[in-house]
Amino acid sequence: MQKWEYSTVPLLVHATKQILDNWGEDGWELVAVVPGPNPDQLVAYLKRPKA
Length: 51
Fold this sequence. Notes:
This protein has 51 residues and is α+β, with helices and mostly antiparallel strands. The chain has 1 helix and 3 strands; from the N terminus they run E-H-E-E.
């Protein structure tokens, strides 16, 4: 059975692609993007297979 590890990452509006690309290079897969604690911020939920 596959096991996963998860992470949450705050996204900066002006650098969203760069942030997600960097995490993607480390094997993380984007699961969802949800509103953050204030209207100008988003939070990404990521997962990757656990080693």
